[in-house]
Amino acid sequence: MLETESLRKVYKNKVAVDEVNIYLKEGESVGLLGPNGAGKSTLISMIATLLKPSSGKVFWEGQDIIKNPHIIRPTLGMVPQEIALYKELSAYENVKFFGKIYRLKGKHLESRVQEVLEIVGLKDRQKELVKNYSGGMQRRINIAVALLHEPDIIIMDEPTVGIDPQSRHYILEMVKRLNEEKGMTVLYTSHYMEEVEKLCDRIYIMDNGKIIATGTKDELVSILSSEETIDLVLEESSSAFEDALRAGEHVLKVTETEKGLKLIVPKQSNQLTTIFHLAEKHQAAIQSVSIHVPSLEDVFLHLTGRKLRD
Fold first, then answer.
1. By Cβ atoms counted within 10 A, which residue in 68, 71, 137, 252 is the most buried?
2. Domains, in order of start, for the chain
3. Backbone φ and ψ of 244, nearest 5°
4. ABC transporter domain location, by residue (predicted)?
5. Torsion angle defined by CA atoms of residues 122, 124, 129 and 133, in that order, rounded to the nearest 10 degrees
6. Helix or strand run (H / E) with residue 207
7. Nearby residues of 70 by Cβ (< 8 Å), 6 or more positions away
8. Radius of gyration (Cα) for the chain, nearest Å?
């Protein structure tokens, strides 16, 4: 349905997107993960025909949309990272205004306005000014605008950033319904690993402008199938202890966390004795230790060396 071929974007001397190849099948929900600066928004902007690539191609149903962007625009919904609404207008006025831009008219326009306001759960508050809405409600209206013209594919660029848990939950459930019940194809980027795990059939991991891994959640987690993760909660950080762990023969990865350190080690390598010995040697007080099989976030840390929110 949608495919990129060696897509590249260069700003002066900086390569933002580097020879990226991705595809989406009809009805799929596909996640795009990457730390800040990975190139996600640039990639999405090129796919949405908002930005011209330096080289490469984007195909929609076999046709090159770089040469002719009007092929995809009528069937594409775009939810930008920033709120794109007129805050001095009501929700109803905003949605109707954008509906006219989509060239919807008359009874069909009015019908679609009411339908999308119902989908996003704000039909009963449609006459209120957008400036009086919470951040989560504004983001829901942003999504309503993208759904007006009944697109076949919707691109969502971090649609839940900075909103309350209730609105976030509502948006996630709504996206899931649109994909599963309506068959809408979704390309979804997020700073929240659990969102992509919940919504997406396949996942691309992007870093430094490149796609560095792709697959289902289970396929990606299998990258670390022969490893296990050890989480250490420390009273306070210790660079000497961390350096000693990094130098360990069987420690594959050490990552700082909010409360301590995360280690990736081979399964059954029996590292706990060594860890406690090094902690005592470097006077690092360990409050707790937990061992578990690697998660998708562990794989992300292993591949990029950075947290998703870094």
1. 137
2. 2-220 (3.40.50.300), 226-293 (3.30.70.980)
3. -65, -40
4. 2-233
5. -50
6. strand 202-207
7. none
8. 23
